[in-house]
């Protein structure tokens, strides 16, 4: 069984509101990072009340796999790189 974003962050209070609790973890860690493969997970994220906390956590911790806070790993890398260039 794959991990789930909310399980990974057991020390973060925001996880208690994570909408991915109860969702199939496979949704959030698809084999491909395509729009089609990530669409269902990202739809859950867009309804999640802690989207920004989750995204921030994933970027700050360099999370390299999966969908976190409506972002893919490559999108998070781009956000992180852009922040470093400032
Ligand atoms: S933003 Fe997405 S991955 Fe993050 S806690 Fe919410 S549903 Fe889970």
From TrEMBL:
Belongs to the WhiB family. It comes from Streptomyces gilvifuscus. Residues 19-78 form the 4Fe-4S Wbl-type domain. This is Transcriptional regulator WhiB. [4Fe-4S] cluster binds at residues 20, 45, 48, 54. Binds 1 [4Fe-4S] cluster per subunit. Following nitrosylation of the [4Fe-4S] cluster binds 1 [4Fe-8(NO)] cluster per subunit. HAMAP family: WhiB (MF_01479). Its cofactor is [4Fe-4S] cluster. PANTHER family: TRANSCRIPTIONAL REGULATOR WHID-RELATED. Its main location: cytoplasm. It is found in: Cytoplasm. The gene is whiB. Upon Fe-S cluster removal intramolecular disulfide bonds are formed. Acts as a transcriptional regulator. Probably redox-responsive. The apo- but not holo-form probably binds DNA. Keywords: 4Fe-4S, Cytoplasm, Disulfide bond, DNA-binding, Iron, Iron-sulfur, Metal-binding, Transcription, Transcription regulation. Signal peptide: none annotated. It comes from the Bacteria.
């Amino acid at each position: 069984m794959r991990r789930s974003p909310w399980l990974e962050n057991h020390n973060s209070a925001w996880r208690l509101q994570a909408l991915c609790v109860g969702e199939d973890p496979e949704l959030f860690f698809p084999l491909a990072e395509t729009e089609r493969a990530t669409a269902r997970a990202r739809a859950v994220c867009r309804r999640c009340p802690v989207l920004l906390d989750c995204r921030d956590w994933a970027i700050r911790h360099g999370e390299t796999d999966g969908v976190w806070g409506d972002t893919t790993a490559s999108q998070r890398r781009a956000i992180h790189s852009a922040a470093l260039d400032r």
